């Protein structure tokens, strides 16, 4: 509603401006409907002109917890007091370091003893033990404390009384207090506030990167760090001095590699750092280290000629996830200064052999590098954090019940806040779109291009849908999921081109609305003398596109996929980056999604959709990264009236949660009911040209 009017005003004499008709009748009719959900309203309706209902504290508590949600769900507007559900009984932790210093470099470690005090609190007010006992004596669910209304229940009061029986002041190690804060339960007696000074205060604030004095570019690094990279270096050094691990989760293109190399140069440690990365990035790390940190002794532990004896003379040992798993016993024979996992999504599944392998390598500290700490679900975040700081978030089962299920299934904002508080001190994430981070990066413009199906495409599309729906009625479990995933893949292929589905080598021209739009866009880009990246998740479709576009547009069209040897890949990238002629670069999404710098492109086109925003953003970031001087236009081709449009809508609706802590894959589609699948997959008339 746009106008709120007290009920008493409705019964006053005269006409109310802005209320058409007979507002008193509307009021009575609404109250008559509401009384079915909240019978207590009947008392208010016993007078001719109902305007209020007086409740005692028990009644108010019942209204807030039970009636209000029911009324809201039924479509009634319910205005609640600002304190409702927010002001809680909980704990406040105050810590003070022995020496009033916040400089980790002056010797403070996580084993240092810290003075602490635990107080009971209501909202932002501390309360005494006597006040708590009075609350327990009253035995009412809604009480007024220090001018604030607080909802209480027996569980909270029992937890509070138990808390005051224990030690409320004393000494504890900084590490123990840190674990207490991270693991503090929100169920019965939440930790409402932490007041910490010194190093612990910097860490728990989650703002250590902003509080710390930036570290200047270290001597021996042949580069000049940007201000945000100097702050990142200070943050990494700060955690390392405390013996803590971290997750550097900056956007792709912000320079996680050079910041890590700067840390190694800054430390000049006596023991080596082990860096584990995908095979495709080994050469990149080797080249970047030689370019920016020529003083580092680098050894690549990979391939048939690898020799573990060379580790002894290295500052940085680079290996792959596969080699780390195979040579685990060799790598475990020594303690490393640091283990770094680049593209840490590779260990997002905690139970895999390679994830367990890298977690078992002895080290003083750990660092995870990833632009996407969460791609599909929160268990991935737990796995990466378990690598960086083992045990900090507790067991996997506890994490699932406390965070993962409430956030993913119920969009529980309180659980999301608690997770941010628990992980915030150990995750540093900066975005390219934040102009306070990097002001000289150009703009990124995202555009959705709607493409119609041809009649041939529409016929094939409907045939695939009908076939799937007929087959899933008699299937369940893994078989049903397989049928749905297979149908999705076939429908994506239909949306690309009939020949992509049929695989019959037939002609491409004039049979696909999406290909026609791609031709138009490519022609315009080339006419402007610019370059574009064209991403597809299907290698077979890329193989079809490359010669077709080259012939139709009389232009250079490069094609990079996972089957190419490394030298060929490097030659293609070098040509695209350095040749002046306008050209197109068709790329397999998985083969080119990470590790490539393609800033010569001013345009990115996602020909087909991966339906995982994190994967698509990784691909886009091949062009939209440091070194880019032109605005980047990103286009996503979507076939209107098909599952591509409806899944795009679903992803947009889920983005609010995804941007907080959750990503989105496409496996969730397989769990939809048959009726829901029919709705998602159905072809509408507006989708056919």
UniProtKB/TrEMBL annotation:
Membrane-spanning ranges: none
Q: Keywords on this record?
A: ATP-binding, Helicase, Hydrolase, Nucleotide-binding
Q: Read off the SUPFAM superfamilies from this record.
A: P-loop containing nucleoside triphosphate hydrolases
Q: Which GO terms describe its molecular function?
A: ATP binding; helicase activity; hydrolase activity
Q: Name one Pfam family in it.
A: DUF3670
Q: Has the keyword ATP-binding been applied to this entry?
A: yes
Spell out the InterPro entries in the cross-references.
DUF3670, Helicase_ATP-bd, Helicase_C-like, P-loop_NTPase, SNF2-like_sf, SNF2/RAD54-like_C, SNF2_N
Q: Does the keyword ATP-binding apply?
A: yes
Query: Which residue range or ranges hold the Helicase C-terminal domain?
Result: 517-673
Residue ranges occupied by any Helicase ATP-binding domain in the UniProt entry: 237-391
Q: Which Gene3D superfamilies match?
A: P-loop containing nucleotide triphosphate hydrolases, Tandem AAA-ATPase domain
What protein name applies here? DEAD/DEAH box helicase
Protein species of origin: Nonomuraea longispora
Organism classification, top ranks? Bacteria, Bacillati, Actinomycetota, Actinomycetes, Streptosporangiales
């Amino acid at each position: 509603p746009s106008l709120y009017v007290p009920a008493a005003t409705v019964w006053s004499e005269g006409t109310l401006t802005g209320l058409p008709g007979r507002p008193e009748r509307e009021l009575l009719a609404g109250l008559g409907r509401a009384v079915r959900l909240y019978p207590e309203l009947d008392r208010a309706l016993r007078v001719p002109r109902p305007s209020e209902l007086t409740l005692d504290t028990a009644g108010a508590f019942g209204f807030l917890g039970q009636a209000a949600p029911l009324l809201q769900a039924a479509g009634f507007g319910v205005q609640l007091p600002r304190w409702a559900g927010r002001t809680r009984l909980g704990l406040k932790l105050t810590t003070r370091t022995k020496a009033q210093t916040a400089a980790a470099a002056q010797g403070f470690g996580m084993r240092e003893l810290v003075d602490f005090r635990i107080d009971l609190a209501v909202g932002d007010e501390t309360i005494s033990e006597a006040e708590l006992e009075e609350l327990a004596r009253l035995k009412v669910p809604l009480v007024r404390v220090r001018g604030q209304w607080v909802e209480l229940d027996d569980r909270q009061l029992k937890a509070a009384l138990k808390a005051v029986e224990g030690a409320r002041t004393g000494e504890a190690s900084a590490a123990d207090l840190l674990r207490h804060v991270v693991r503090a339960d929100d169920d019965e007696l939440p930790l409402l506030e932490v007041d910490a000074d010194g190093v612990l205060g910097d860490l728990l604030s989650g703002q250590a990167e902003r509080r710390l004095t930036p570290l200047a570019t270290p001597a021996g690094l042949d580069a000049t760090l940007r201000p945000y990279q100097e702050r990142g270096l200070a943050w990494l050094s700060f955690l390392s001095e405390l013996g803590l691990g971290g997750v550097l989760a900056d956007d792709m293109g912000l320079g996680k590699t050079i910041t890590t190399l700067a840390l190694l140069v800054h430390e000049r440690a006596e023991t080596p750092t082990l860096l584990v990365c995908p095979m495709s990035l080994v050469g990149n790390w080797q080249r970047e280290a030689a370019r920016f940190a020529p003083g580092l002794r680098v050894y690549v532990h990979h391939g048939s000629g690898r020799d573990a004896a060379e580790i002894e003379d290295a500052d940085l040992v680079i290996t792959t996830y596969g080699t780390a798993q195979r040579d685990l016993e060799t790598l475990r024979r020594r303690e490393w200064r640091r283990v770094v996992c680049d593209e840490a999504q590779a260990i997002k599944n905690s139970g895999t052999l390679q994830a367990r392998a890298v977690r078992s390598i002895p080290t003083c500290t750990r660092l995870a590098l990833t632009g996407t700490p969460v791609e599909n679900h929160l268990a991935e975040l737990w796995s990466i954090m378990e690598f960086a700081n083992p045990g900090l978030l507790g067991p996997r089962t506890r994490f699932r019940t406390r965070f993962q299920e409430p956030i993913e299934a119920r969009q529980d904002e309180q659980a999301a806040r608690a997770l941010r508080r628990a992980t915030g001190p150990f995750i540093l994430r900066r975005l390219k779109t934040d102009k306070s981070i990097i002001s000289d990066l150009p703009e990124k413009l995202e555009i959705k291009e709607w493409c119609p199906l041809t009649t041939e495409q529409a016929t094939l599309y409907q045939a695939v849908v009908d076939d799937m729906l007929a087959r899933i009625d008699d299937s369940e479990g893994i078989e049903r999921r397989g049928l749905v995933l297979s149908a999705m893949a076939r429908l994506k292929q239909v949306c690309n081109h009939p020949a992509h589905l049929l695989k019959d080598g037939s002609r491409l021209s004039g049979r696909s609305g999406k290909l026609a739009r791609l031709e138009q866009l490519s022609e315009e880009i080339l006419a402007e003398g610019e370059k574009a990246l064209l991403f597809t998740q299907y290698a077979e479709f890329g193989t079809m596109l490359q010669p077709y576009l080259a012939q139709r547009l009389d232009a250079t069209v490069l094609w990079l996929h996972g089957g190419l040897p490394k030298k060929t890949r490097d030659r293609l990238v070098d040509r695209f980056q350095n040749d002046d002629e306008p050209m197109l670069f068709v790329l397999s999404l998985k083969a080119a999604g990470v590790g490539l710098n393609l800033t010569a492109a001013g345009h990115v086109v996602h020909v087909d959709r991966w339906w995982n925003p994190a994967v698509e953003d990784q691909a886009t970031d091949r062009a939209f990264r440091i070194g880019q001087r032109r605005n980047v236009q990103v286009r996503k081709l979507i076939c209107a009236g098909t599952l591509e449009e409806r899944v795009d809508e679903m992803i947009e609706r889920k983005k609010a949660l995804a941007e907080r802590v959750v990503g989105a894959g496409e496996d969730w589609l397989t769990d939809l009911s048959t009726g829901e699948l029919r709705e998602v997959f159905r072809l509408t008339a507006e989708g056919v040209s």
